[in-house]
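Notes to self after the call with IL:
- keep both proteins in one doc
- input above output, always
- annotate only the second one for now

Protein 1:
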Amino acid sequence: MNALQIVLILIVAGIAGMGSVLDEAQTHRPLVVCTLIGLILGDLKMGIILGGTLEMMALGWMNVGLAMAPDTALASAISTLIVINTHTSVGEGIAIAVPLAAAGQALTIFVRTIVVFFVHKGDDFAAKGNYRAIEWMHGIALALQALRVMIPTAIIMTLSTAAVQHMLAAIPTVITKGLQIGGGIIVVVGYAMVINMMDVPQLKPFFYMGFLFAAFTNFNLVGFGGLGLIMALLYLQLEYRNENKAPRVATVSNTSASDDDLDDDLDDDLDD
């Protein structure tokens, strides 16, 4: 890697570290981080494939209350570097990303604990009306989150390709295969968590149908994407048609009711 690539990768890693706590722009997601690093290293295809695979694993990972999710930013940055530089497979990249996500989870808890000090200092500055100092406290806290991903990424970049390959070869096959299988299970769990949070039971048959098609057909991801798009369009058309029918029935019933009232009034006038 040249100097420009190293600087760009560190910038992406820093933005991913800050995005993992901001959550607004979703810059810490594997699909974003892996794609950008793959583009920088000249292997965009591998970056997209690895990012899409890791994205399915991390789909249901999120911070809820005091529960910290595994760190996708650190796992995405380092796993992409290792996979592209050592020319390993996506499966080995998943096996690397899973323990990295767990390590990043512990690291982000440590950094967030340190950030508490700057939060309290910000409260003190707020009581004094020093808004510039409050901005500095926010900036330092974000900088620590950026360094949380940048420093481990820089350490990996300092290692030679042979050293990284030797480290990967030292991992027993039973562990790498187990992590790959576990990663596949996490994908299903991630989708299940998202469906439970969406609370849309009427869409669950489509979810089950996708598994049946995957098990008994030879569809690839492009075919599944096209099939999902067609099913979504059909569902929206049927839903829109049902919504249009309901007001029409209500209008007819209201009109008939008003006509009945007019007829009753006319009959009363004739009787008088």
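Protein 2 (the one to annotate):
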Amino acid sequence: MRRLLYIVVLVALILAGVLFGSINQQVADLNLLVISVQLRVVDIALLFLLLGMLLGWLIIMLYSLQRKAKGWLRKSTESH
């Protein structure tokens, strides 16, 4: 039941974001190191949100791998 509530809240937030994103059509310049592009403000926010989620996922995966492999090298050298 709790999982269903989380899904409903998440879908409602996504729908609210799509609604506000479709209303706001303002264009802004995004100046990066090498290029400059014109994107909608909503697209820039989505780009940075996805980039932050990807970076967080990578950090979590590296930390998880480090925890799982913590004693792996020690175990393999002790058995010989």
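Annotation: The first strand starts at residue 27 and ends at 31. The chain has a mean pLDDT of 85.
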